[in-house]
Amino acid sequence: MLETKNLTIRFGGHVAVDGVSCAFQPGTLTAIVGPNGAGKTTYFNLISGQLPATSGEVWLDGENLTGQPAPARTRRGLGRAFQLTQLFAHLTVLENVRLAVQARQGKGLAMLSVWLSHRELIAEAEAILKRVRLDPRSSDLAASLPHGDQRKLEVAMLIALDPKVYLFDEPTAGMSVDEVPVVLDLIRALKAEKKHTLLLVEHKMDVVRELADRIIVLHQGRLVADGDPATVIASPIVQEAYLGVAA
Question: Where is the ABC transporter domain (predicted)?
Answer without folding.
Answer: 2-245
